[in-house]
């Protein structure tokens, strides 16, 4: 069984310094429901369970410390719109439901951030999507047409506006959409964990090794304790298959990011752009760029088929150099600014681009295959899994079921080991002008 590992490289988490310690579970416990995985799905699910059922007891279990896994490793976007594929397919009403679900998730997170004063650089800054050259502009023009057809608000930026915002003339075209949110993901996850309802217990460094069904529910076996529960929610995403579910249906993909140290006052003058923005590539194989509120620039590109679910350390120097080249191409005046951190973060895809949501079997609920939009989608999925487990029927839950599907079966792993890296290499070559 492959378990999550923490490599000590994630800049978002390492910047937190000292965090609360939720002890490893060392004694057997009995609860009404257990949630495995302390990411966006798990944190939202256990909180919603506690809200729905204040007289019941719940445990949130994570193999690492909350914020060290995938939810604390993304680029800090909470995206309200569907991906372009979802904008292309389906009728207008289905797309409207997707957007409403994502925006409900943003409001749910925002309420907690405000209520508990969580310091996570939360910002309703919107999102930019940029193109570098002709290939990217073709994708961006298509995206603009999709936004028009769907009736979504957007702004096409002038060259001067791009220069003013990004501090670089590297981009040839850009579209701004106002609905997205930016944040510091590891700080958000820690803040959510630190402010759970009283009937939620958190156990970190407690990987679940086996799930056994009993006449009354389930027994979860760890190295140090057993957990008895009547219901189980899996927020384990790519590790769901390791627990025996959705095998051969989840494709784990890892993307990599590098983060600079904070820019000095002199470097900020040379930079000349704004703080607090995020740009995703019009060409999906291009480069994501962030400027944080605390003056750090983040650059993300490079992908790998993460069959081992974790970050191979020997790959990082080459990836870091690739990031360096992309950074200096955009900001030659900042070429002396070093990277503080380089890390990888995993997401999950499916062969048919469907996201799983629902009851895997009696008493076991799960959400998986986030299609690289895990913050909003994971949050609303966790909320709705909790409603489903609580027998609570709402329009939101109906919408969630309607926009979800069944991930298709993937080819055998030997073929994936050959085919997926080859396809990624071809995509990188095709998109080389957009990196």
Structure, described:
It comes from Marinobacterium rhizophilum. InterPro entries: FAD-dep_OxRdtase (IPR006076), FAD/NAD-bd_sf (IPR036188). Helix 2 (40-52) packs parallel to helix 10 and helix 4 (92-115) packs across helix 11 (395-403). The chain contains twelve helices and 18 strands. The radius of gyration is 21 Å and the shape is globular. A hairpin with a 5-residue loop joins strand 14 and strand 15 (297-305). The model has no long low-confidence stretch (mean pLDDT 94). By secondary structure, the protein is α/β, with parallel strands linked by helices. The longest helix is centred in the first third of the chain and has 24 residues, at 92-115.
Question: Brief description of this entry?
Answer:
The chain has 435 residues and is α/β, with parallel strands linked by helices. It has helices at residues 11-14, 40-52, 84-88, 92-115, 134-150, 159-166, 185-194, 265-271, 316-330, 374-389, 395-403, 413-430, and strands at residues 29-36, 58-61, 77-78, 127-131, 155-156, 173-177, 181-182, 200-203, 210-214, 217-221, 226-234, 251-260, 277-281, 288-291, 297-305, 339-349, 356-361, 364-368.
């Amino acid at each position: 069984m492959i378990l999550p590992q923490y490599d000590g490289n994630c800049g978002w988490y390492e910047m937190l310094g000292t965090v609360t310690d939720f002890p490893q579970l060392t004694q057997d416990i009995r609860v009404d429901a257990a949630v495995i995985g302390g990411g966006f799905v798990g944190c939202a699910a256990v909180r919603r369970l506690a809200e729905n059922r204040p007289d019941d007891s719940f445990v949130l279990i994570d193999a690492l410390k909350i914020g060290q896994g995938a939810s604390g490793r993304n680029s800090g976007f909470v995206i309200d719109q569907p991906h372009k594929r979802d904008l292309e397919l389906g009728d207008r009403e289905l797309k409207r439901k997707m957007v409403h679900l994502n925006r409900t998730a943003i409001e749910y997170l925002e309420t907690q951030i405000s209520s508990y004063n969580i310091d996570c650089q939360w910002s309703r800054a919107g999102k930019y999507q940029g193109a570098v050259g002709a290939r990217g502009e073709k994708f961006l023009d298509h995206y603009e047409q999709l936004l028009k057809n769907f009736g979504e608000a957007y702004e096409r930026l002038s060259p001067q506006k791009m220069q003013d915002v990004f501090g670089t003339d590297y981009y040839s075209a850009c579209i701004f959409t106002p609905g997205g949110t930016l944040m510091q993901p590891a700080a958000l996850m820690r803040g959510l964990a630190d402010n759970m309802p009283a009937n939620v217990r958190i156990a970190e460094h407690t990987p679940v090794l086996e799930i056994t069904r009993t006449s009354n529910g389930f027994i979860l076996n760890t190295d140090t304790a057993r957990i008895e529960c009547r219901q189980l929610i899996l927020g384990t995403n790519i590790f769901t298959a390791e627990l025996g579910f959705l095998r051969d249906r989840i494709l784990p993909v890892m993307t990599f990011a590098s983060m600079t140290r904070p820019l000095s006052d002199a470097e900020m003058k040379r930079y000349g752009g704004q703080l607090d923005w995020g740009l995703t590539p019009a060409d999906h194989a291009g480069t994501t760029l962030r400027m944080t509120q605390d003056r750090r620039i983040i650059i993300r590109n490079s992908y790998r088929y993460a069959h081992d679910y974790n970050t191979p350390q020997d790959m990082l120097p080459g990836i870091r150099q690739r990031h360096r080249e992309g950074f200096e191409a955009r900001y030659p005046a900042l070429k002396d600014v070093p990277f503080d951190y380089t890390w990888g973060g995993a997401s999950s895809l499916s062969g048919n681009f469907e996201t799983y949501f629902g009851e895997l079997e009696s008493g076991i609920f799960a959400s998986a295959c986030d299609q690289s939009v895990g913050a909003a989608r994971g949050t609303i999925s966790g909320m709705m899994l909790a409603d489903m487990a609580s027998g609570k029927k709402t329009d939101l839950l109906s919408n969630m079921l309607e926009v979800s599907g069944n991930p298709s079966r993937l080819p055998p792993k030997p073929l994936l080991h050959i085919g997926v890296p080859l396809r990624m290499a071809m995509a990188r070559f095709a998109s080389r002008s957009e990196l």
